[in-house]
Amino acid sequence: EAGVAQSPRYKIIEKRQSVAFWCNPISGHATLYWYQQILGQGPKLLIQFQNNGVVDDSQLPKDRFSAERLKGVDSTLKIQPAKLEDSAVYLCASSLSGKGYEQYFGPGTRLTVT
Amino acid sequence: AQSVTQLDSQVPVFEEAPVELRCNYSSSVSVYLFWYVQYPNQGLQLLLKYLSGSTLVESINGFEAEFNKSQTSFHLRKPSVHISDTAEYFCAVSTGSSNTGKLIFGQGTTLQVKP
Q1: Are A48 and A55 in contact (CB under 8 A)?
Q2: Which DSSP state fits A59?
Q3: CA dihedral defined by A105, B107, A59, B101, rounded to 10 degrees?
């Protein structure tokens, strides 16, 4: 089966610009996660969707970050405007359900903000 | 609040030697525990998980981890490592009280296997 797809793989922008990342989860997976992984740290959950509804966005900086999952399949994560500290790898993951089920991760998008 | 501490940021080891990667967690409720591996330029892959039952869990490539509730630990071990085991390893916890499946990750341990 196809894995979690993400694009682009790399992105370089200047601060105050906007950027968007796209994720296509594994077919049939109801739950979709976006994580932020800063260099030298473990991934940190930004937002979790169950189908097209938000389950947890407690750590999403809502003044600049937004995410949507239209029709409960693909998802887009946007940053506007970007700051230097947003430089990180953005990982998308999906799972059949929530608790206890394996999360399958995409290759990530490496964002560099200059 | 939940947290995960991986006690070693880097672990260098020679090929065919045993290795232990340490992980401690803090949670006042029941937990699910995971080890993920990240090879260079790849996404995270599940290595093994503890949900319930036997406290010793094994992966298909020779790793094992033991859930120790009294010490709140979930250390990862392998009796003989290979060059191909060189990667970043992440310990993660999901509390049983939450139905969301949200994972809290440790900082990661870089395992460097030398010939």
Answers
A1: yes
A2: T
A3: 50
Nearest CA in chain A to B6: A42
- Dihedral sign for Cα A55, A57, A63, A65, please: negative
What does the alpha-carbon distance between residue B112 and residue B82 come to, in Å, rounded to a whole number?
10
**Hey, is A93 helix, strand or coil?**
strand
At position B33, the amino acid (one-letter code) is L
As given in the structure block, the two tokens for residue A99 are 């608790």
pLDDT digits over A61-88, tens only?
Answer: 999 999 999 888 999 999 999 999 999 9
The residue of chain B nearest to residue A92, with distances taken between CA atoms, is B43
Report the C-alpha gap between B20 and A17 in whole angstroms. 44
Q: Give CA–CA dist A18/A13, Å, rounded.
A: 8
